[in-house]
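Hi! If you just cloned this repository, the fastest way to understand the data is to look at a raw example. We've pasted two of them here, unedited. The first protein comes first, obviously.
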Amino acid sequence: MSSSTIRPFLLADALVSGATGALLVIAAPMLESWLGLPAALLRYAGIILLPFAMVVGWLGSQAAPPRAAVKAIVATNFAWVAASILLLVAGDVNPTTLGIAFVLFQAAVVLVLGELQVMGLRKTARIA
């Protein structure tokens, strides 16, 4: 896989995931009151994001990230987007307007990163 095609998208994903994970872990109690989402949910989401960010960052640092690993990252990103939407429609939480905006914004960012990664995979398939 051409590193110039996919690596920037993986590194951006790692940066965004790591920053969001750190914020959620560190500030979960404060965010709970602003977002209307349980602190435990926010903290666990952050705990999940931190190792994910490390793996994605490691893949992004490889000269030629394995296609199968990148596909797994893309699938995980799309699953995260689906879970974010499900969180809002299932009715198990009662987020504030800011909370709804936060969930939708982070899902949109993840969706864009996933789509950029798909585009990178397609481009490298044509090059190969």
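Ok, and the second one:
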Amino acid sequence: MQFQHLTSSGLNSVISAAAARASHYVTQPSGVIERSPSSNDVEYRQAYQNVLNALNALPDGAIIELQALAWAGRGDNGGELVENYDTSRMRFDSTTREYLYKMPLQTYLQTGLARSGAVLRS
């Protein structure tokens, strides 16, 4: 599938912000993900704000495609990008950015790209 709205720079912006946010967490031996005890409150809040800013900078069409890619990375609909896109398009609303903001976006987006072979605009 070739995306019409999501560009490589837009995707990279979200992944970079999500990676910075993820650096504030640690995975416990039990598998539980918790905020790192060494995480500075100001840096922690800024990392979250940067993810939200990156999402808000994208047009609605790119958010729909980003959500489909994240769902493919999570394994929804067997990781099938086209099905996830159709579902994302139908469910898109004013809360979609906030919904995405709460996801482990770095992992889901990178996995979605690897699984789907999606083509992004430059």
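That's it. A detail worth noticing about the second one: The first helix runs from residue 8 to 22.
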